Amino acid sequence: MKGGLFITGTDTDVGKTWVTVRLIEALRERGVDAVGMKPIESGGTKDSEALLAASSREDLALRDVNPVNLSEPVAPAASTDGVAIDFDKLCEAYEDLVGKSELVFIEGAGGWVVPVDETRTMVDLAVHLGQPVLIVAANRLGVMNHTLLTLTAVQAAGLECMGVLLNTFGEGGEDVSRETNAEVLRQHLGEVPLFEGLGEAIVSLSS
Description:
Elements: E1 3-9, H1 16-29, E2 34-37, E3 40-42, H2 46-55, H3 62-65, E4 68-70, H4 87-100, E5 103-111, H5 122-129, E6 133-138, H6 143-156, E7 161-167, H7 181-188, E8 194-195, H8 198-206
Parallel strand pairs: 1-5, 1-6, 2-5, 3-4, 6-7, 7-8
Helix pairs in contact: 1-2, 1-8, 6-7
């Protein structure tokens, strides 16, 4: 795969950055010049710094990976920084990375429909960029509803969903749904592949 891939999540804290960093590192080990981009980050630069480090490119700076940084850990639309987010400039920053790399992983902020300003959401940014989408979903109770709603919204936006990555992390505790989530999701995802872990996603992206 070449070009770009937009990585979204079914919610916050589902492991988007962790997954994106691992994918970049794995593909770079396979000889693919993969880099990361976080167009908009709120509440610091931790995620963007992780993507920059994984990209391992001396010619890239943090501003290349993260063009818009907002100080508060809230949805961009709730920020009081007074920053006007220009999608055309974000697209230009993405195209610049594409011109320097084989594959750009674009990590969204929060979930699929997080408000960016008074009228636009992350959906509008993803459509503006026009790249296929990978959905990261946390393997826990509620993942089926969240995943299928997100997939429906991605497809309704006219974008290709190249897969759902079911991310299992932490202790399962009493969450017995972890044992059946993958099987039931496959029954409802149609032709959209389900990746049970990074290994399957890496093989798909490398082909």
